[in-house]
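are you around this afternoon, could really use another pair of eyes. what follows is a protein written twice so to speak, once as letters and once as C-alpha cells for the fold. i want to understand how the C-alpha cells follow from the sequence so walk me through it. anything you notice is useful, everything is just below.
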Amino acid sequence: MFNLSRINQFWRLPVGHYYWRQNKQGSPLMEVEDSISLRVLVLALVITGIVATDIAAETKFSLWAIPVSVMGAIWSNRSRRNTNITVKFCIAIGMLIALGAFFGRLLGELNDTRLGLAELLIQLQVLHSFDMPRRKDLGYSIVIGLILLGVAATLSQTLAFAPVLLLFLAIALPTLALDYRSRLGLEKLNFKPHKVKEKKWSSLLPFYCLLFTLIVGLGLAIFAVLPRFPGYQLRTFPVSSAIAVKGNFTGRSIINPGYVRQGNTKNQGSGSNGDGQSKNGKPGNIDNNFYYGFNSQINQNLRGAMKPKVVMRVRSQAEGFWRVLAFDRYTGKGWDVSRNDDVMTLKRSPWSYQIFLAPPAISGKTQQVVQTYTVVADLPNLIPALAYPKEVYFPTPVIAVDQENGLRSPVELSEGLTYTVISEVPYRDRTALGQASTKYLKQIQKHYLQIPPEIAQKVRQRTEEILANYNRERVGKSSKTLDSPYEKALYLAQYLKQNYSIPENPFDLPYLGEKEDLVEAFLFKYKGGYPDHFSTVLTVMLRSIGIPARLVAGFSPGEFNPFTGLYVVRNTDAYAMTEVYFPKYGWFAFDPIPNHPLIPPSIEDIQTFSVLRQFWQWIAGWVPSPIRGWLDYVFSTIFTWITRAIAWFFALFSQGWLGVLTGLILTTTTAFFCWLGWEQWREWLNRRWLRKLSPMESLYRQMLQWTAQKGLGKHPAQTPLEYARVAYQHHSPGNAQVIDEICQAYVSWRYGGYTPNLQQLRQRWQELKTTTTARNSKFKFY
C-alpha cells in the first residue's frame, strides 16, 4: 500500500490556485458557493424528490413547494455573501411552526408517520432554500432530496415511481461531479471559443450516458439476484387515519356496493344486478364490477362476467388466499350464512389501532404472517385477510367476527383505506392431516354436513362410485390410498378438474329451473358448470360421505409485482373454494376449479427469488419442452435448497443464545472462506495478467507489487528512476540495488529499445525475495 507520509519527504505535489482556493473560514465546506450549475442541479434534485413523494403518496405538495423552492434558490444565490440575519430569524420561526404542526398531525396518524415526516421535511427544505450560501448547505439539500426519494419508495405501490427514480439518477451524476470539483477547489473550466466549449460538453455527454447505463444495469442485476426476505420486523404497521362510526354497530349486515347504491336497496343478499329477477335462486345477471359472492346469501343461478379492475394491493410475508367470508348452508341454487346474526363485536383501545382476536383452537404448527392491504376500489364491509387472523390494525374503533371466522367492518372499504392483519396460518402437513381423527363435534356435524334430502342419496352414490374407481382410473397418477378424509378430498377435487368443464361463454349454460338443483345438474346433466359451481359440488360431495366442509369466498393472491413487492388484486381474482375441517388442525382449503392450483398458495410458497423465477419463466418460453422440463427441475431444486438454507439460518437467531452463537460462528466462518476465496481469485487474476505482459514488464510489475506489500509503494507521479533513488533511503543497500537495477533495465527497455539480461535480473530478484523471507522468518523465530 502506498505510504504517503514517507514519500512526501522526497516528493511533493504542487498545490496552487488551480487545486485549492484559499478559505478564509478555514474549511472548504464553509466557503461561499458561486457555481450556478451546481445550484440549479441541487434544486432539480430536491424538486424531483418532492414530485416523487407526490406521485407515491398521491398528494399535492409540489403545487406550492416547487415554486417557493425556486424563489428561495434565487434569493439564496443573490444574497449568498450577505449575513441575512433577519432571514435566518424568520426561518427559525418557520421551522418551529412546522415542527408544531407535525406533532399535531402525529397524534392522528400514530401507525404510519412516513407521510407526516415527508411533509415536515419538505417544509424544512423550502425554508432552508432561502439560506444556502455555502457548499455544505447545498449538500444538506442533496441529502434531503435523497431522503424524500427514499420515503417515496416506501410509499409507492406502482411502477409510476420508476421514471422518477431514473430521472433522479440522471440529475445526481452531474451534481455529484460538480460537487466533487467544488470540494477539491478546482476552478470552473472556461472555454472562450464557443466551438471548443460545445466540443467539451459533447465529449462528456457519451461518458455520462455510459455511466448512467452501467449504474442502471448493475442495479437491475443486483435487484434480480437479491433475495426477498419477509419484512415487518417492526411492530408498527400502516393503517389509515381513524374513521368515526355513527350509530350502534352490530356486524349483522353486509354492505356490498354492487347491491346497495345511494341508499337504494337492490335485492340485497341475492347477488343480483338490480333487474328485479334475481332473488335467491332465481335467474339473473351478475354485476360486472362487484363479485356476487360477498354477501350473506349468494345465488349461483346467475350468468355473466366481470370487467377486470384493480381493487386492492397487498404486501404480505407470504402468498395466500385473501379470505373474505364462508357459507355453511346449501340452498340448492346457492349458499347462505345460517348464523349471520350470531356475530361478536370487538373494540380497540382509543390509544391504539390494534384489535385482538381469540386464538384458534388448533394444535398443528403455525406461522405468523403479516399482511397490509390498501384498497384501490370500493369493496363491501368485509375485511379480507389470511386464515386465522389474531391481530387486526384497523382505522375504525370496532369490528365484528362471525361464526365462520370472517371479519366485518362498520363501514365500506373505500378507496385509499389501509389496514394490517397478523394471521397465525397453519402449515399444511399432508401426513398429519391424513392421520386426523374422524370424530367430529356435534356442532361441526350440525352445520357442515347439511345437504338437501332430495339429492343426498344420489350425490352420495356418485361420490362413492368415484372413490371406488380410484384404483382403476388413478387420476393424476397418485400413489396414495384413499383411507383418510384428506386424501378423499384431494382426489375428488382433482377428479372434478379433469372430468368436468367450464363453458366458454358466460351465457352458454342454461338457467336452472325452479325445481332443479345445482349439484345434481352439474354432475348428471351438464357435466360441468361455472368456476364457483365446481367448489359447490365438491363441498356437497364431501358432506354426502360424512366429511365436514363449507364454501369460502375470497381473492386469489393476484399478480405479484417484484419491483414493488405488492400483490395486485383485481375483482376478477375473486372466487369460491371448499374448506374441509380436520379435528385439532382446523380448516384447510381445496380448489377444484380447472386451471387453478389444487392447493391454494400458502406459507410454504415464498418470493425469495421471485425476480429470477419470473425471468427464467420468460426465458423458458423459448426453450424446447424436454430441455425446459429438465432445467425447471434443476433450477427449482437449487432455489428450494437455497431458500431452505436461508430460512434455516435466520431461524437460528430465534432459538435463544445457543442459536445466536451458532449463527454468529457460521457467519464468521462463511465470511472467512469467502475472503479466502476472494483473495485466491485476485491472486489468480494477477498471475494471469502478469503472464500476458512482456517478460521485462512482468518483472518490473512484480517488483512494484512486492514493495507495495512492504508499505513502500511507488507514487503514481514518480518515474521509475526517481523511485529507484528514493528506494536507497527506505530499503537495505542490497535490496535497493536490486530495485535500482530492475528500474534501470525497465527504462532502458521501454524507452531506449535495449534488450535486458532477463536471466540475471530474475536471478537477482529471486535472491532478494529469498533473503528477505529468511530474514523475516529468523526475526519471528527469535
User: Anything to note?
Assistant: The first strand starts at residue 260 and ends at 261. The chain has 22 helices and 22 strands. Residues 613-652 form one domain. The radius of gyration is 36 Å.
